[in-house]
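Obj: model holo form, ligand = calcium ion.
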Amino acid sequence: MSAAQRILLVEDDDALAETLAEQLALHSEFSLTRAETAKQALEVTGSIRFDLILLDVGLPDQDGRETCKILRTKGIATPIIMLTGAATDADTILGLDAGANDYITKPFRFGILLARMRAHLRSQQNSETAVLAIGPYDLRPAVKVLEMRAGGDKIRLTEKETNILKFLHRAGGAAVPREVLLHEVWGYNAQVSTHTLETHIYRLRQKIEADPSDAQILQTVEGGYCLQL
Ligand code: CA
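Output (holo C-alpha cells):
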C-alpha cells in the first residue's frame, strides 16, 4: 500500500535538489514538490498542504529561518526540517523563534535524512495538531472536523467517519479493500458486516460530496474504496 506523503523541498541548489528528487522517487510513499526561493515556498504553501517541508537555510531571497518563522505565523504546523551548511546554526534554527522541528547539516547521507523525515511524519500523524489534506478539505482527526480549505465551512464527523477517512488517507489514494477498512476501523473482533461499513460510507458521502450519487472524493473501486487526494 503506497502512502503519498506530500513533501515540499525548498532549495536553490539544483544539484542537491535533483539528487534528493531522484532518491525520494525510489520511495513511492513520497510525492515531491520543489520551490527554489522563499517567495515560491510561501506561494505554494498557500494553496497546497504539505505533510513535511525541507527548508534550506541559505535561500537566495531570504534566510530560511525567517521563512520558517513566517510559515508558522501563517498557522502552518507542518513539520519543518531545515537544511543547513553549518552546524553552528543549530541554536537559532531550533529556537522557539524560528519554529523548525529539526535540522540536518550538509553534506548529509540520504538515509539519515530519510529516517528523520519518517520520524517526523509519524509523530505528526499521531499528534493533536495533525491536519490531513483530502480533496478540497482539511481533516483534523483530533477534533473530528473536516474543514473546507477555501471557505472555512466545517463538517462535524463521527468517530467512525473520522477513522475511515484517516485510514483511507494513510493509503495515499490507493484502493483499500472493504475487509481491511472494516477491520482497521471496527477492530478484528467486531461483529460487523461490510453492510455497516457501506452505511457509514453512504452517510459520509452525504456530508462531503457535492453530488453523493456521483462521488468524486470518496470513490468506490473494485472491492473497496479510495480517496481522491
Ligand atoms: Ca542554498
